[in-house]
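Input/output pair, single chain:
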Amino acid sequence: MVSKQTIKVRHNMEVAHRLSLLPGKCQQIHGHSMWVDLSLTGLVNGNGVLLGLDFATVKRHFRNYLDTFYDHRLLLNETDPLLNLLVKDVDGGYGANACTGDPTTENIARWIGEWAMQTFEAVDLRHIKVEVAETHCNGAEWEAEVRYERT
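Output:
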């Protein structure tokens, strides 16, 4: 019997952003205490471990990524005129990060999912899912069936 299972890790991040392309109150700089869940699905090895990935490895990579690129950062669209006022050096200056598109919760979920696809590409995953909750009531999900080309 071949079985597949999913492991899930969770981390939080404090994020400020501005949706410059969306008319309304979200054009104002505001922040969220976001919770992010990463789910990886694949085959389980003979020791009962998902593709040899232990929780410690997944958590270390995942939490480091979120803490480095999102936590306590101001996310702005790369076309946002405020970005040039805030970025003073290559290290991000005042904690502002340029994003390819508005930093909506949907985009943040996708960007984290794309990072996970690259980070765990050496592992034969079947499915990746990212859930981002921007409030207790609202959030976004991104998921993809993964088919890595093996050479």
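The first strand starts at residue 4 and ends at 17. The chain has one domain: 4-145.
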